[in-house]
């Protein structure tokens, strides 16, 4: 092989490298990624209310007294199965991630039950009325801002009433369901 043939081979290799380099620069210029000014993803968050509370309790559409008139304890027991991931319901059962709910209707909020309640729940005070349970089950973080309960709530009024009717039966002396005000 003479030097002329060797020069042609080296020239072809250099020309191929030059073409690859020019193609790479052109592709980078045409398809350059848009880098965000701030790394990460934007997460949509509800705007803060005027009073400063991050969330407000969802206002149930109908009074709980009216909803309880047509509530079904059997449907409530079935609907409460989603609560069993964190709560227990039978008398004397150990607490789960959340407290045992036997006898919760009429009981004090954030006290007893052998459970370490969040500071927000302890600070709520009072007893669990049907109306309070309705608001809490609709939006736990809305009714007790700062609660450790991560459940989003039950939005359907009739399903919430069924669960509350079921909870009312879980007691040594069940609390009678309220009657609807006329």
Give a written overview of the molecule.
The protein has 182 residues and is mainly α. The protein is built from 7 helices and no strands. Helix 3 crosses helix 7. The radius of gyration is 32 Å and the shape is rod-shaped. Residues 49-57 have low confidence and may be disordered.
**Major β-sheet annotation:** none
Helix content: 25-40%
What is the strand tally? Answer: 0
Q: In what range is the share of β-strand residues?
A: under 5%
What distance separates the N and C termini? Answer: 110 Å
- Helical/strand content category: mainly alpha
Number of discrete helical segments? 7
Determine the oligomeric state from the structure: single chain
Low-confidence stretches: 49-57
Choose one word for the global shape: rod-shaped
> Helix and strand string, N-terminal first?
HHHHHHH
Average pLDDT over all residues: 81
Question: What would a concise description of this structure say?
Answer:
With 182 residues, the chain is mostly helical. It has 7 helices and no strands. The chain starts with a helix and ends in a 13-residue tail after the last helix.
């Amino acid at each position: 092989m003479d030097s002329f043939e060797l020069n042609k081979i080296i020239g072809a290799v250099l020309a191929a490298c030059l073409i690859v380099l020019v193609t790479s620069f052109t592709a980078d210029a045409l398809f350059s990624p848009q880098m965000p000014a701030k790394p990460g993803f934007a997460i949509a968050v509800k705007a803060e209310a005027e009073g400063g509370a991050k969330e407000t309790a969802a206002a149930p559409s109908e009074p709980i007294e009216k909803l309880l008139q047509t509530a079904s304890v059997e449907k409530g027991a079935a609907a409460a199965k989603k609560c069993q991931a964190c709560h227990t319901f039978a008398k004397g059962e150990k607490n789960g991630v959340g407290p045992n709910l036997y006898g919760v209707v009429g009981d004090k909020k954030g006290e007893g039950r052998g459970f370490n309640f969040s500071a927000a729940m302890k600070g709520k005070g009072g007893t669990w009325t049907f109306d309070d349970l309705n608001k809490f089950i609709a939006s736990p973080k809305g009714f007790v801002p700062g609660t450790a309960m991560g459940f989003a709530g039950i939005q359907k009024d009739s399903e919430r009433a069924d669960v509350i009717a079921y909870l009312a039966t879980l007691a040594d002396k069940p609390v009678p369901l309220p009657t609807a005000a006329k």
